[in-house]
Amino acid sequence: MGVMEMQPGEVGSLSARIYNKVREGLIIGNFAPGDRLLMQDLAEQLGTSITPVREACLRLVSEQALELRSGRFVAVPDLSRARYIQIKLIRMALEGLATEHAADHVTPADLEQLESFRVSFVKSEKAGNLEESAILQSRFPLRRLPPVAYADADRTDRKHVGLDGANPQRLLPGNSAWLCRHG
């Protein structure tokens, strides 16, 4: 697990900022399935008291991104093969539908933004910078583009600007990361 730090000037309540930090850590794969996260250790890494850390962790537990194991720690849940297949099937259906909808509403500016993002991501991947690639992938601008504007890897009639749509594990580095990102 990498060291997490709060950045000066971050907005939102302290527990919301901690929630976002831990959530991002799950998304980019800083935590592996089965990892125990001691709330006191997280509080020390983030330079805060345990109360906002506990609130953030309980929120992630309610989203099934973490499991409460005791009053002192949470754990990253394991992902069974059956659950992985279920998530993969749901993603394929939703992303295909979103792609069809987006293709009808995408603007040239959306495509420029996505292409710029894609170039940065590919450059990072080719350089072997997996952490940067994971961070870029977790910040993929799906939520900022109304509606979602990326093409499904299976579509040949649209320019492919999506990221590894054929491999849902890429968005599951901590196994529960997809749930955090899309929950």
TrEMBL record:
The keyword Ribonucleoprotein does not apply. It holds the Pfam family GntR. Keywords: DNA-binding, Transcription, Transcription regulation. It comes from the Bacteria. Residues 12-79 form the HTH gntR-type domain. InterPro entries: Tscrpt_reg_HTH_GntR, WH-like_DNA-bd_sf, WH_DNA-bd_sf. This is GntR family transcriptional regulator. It comes from Mesorhizobium opportunistum.
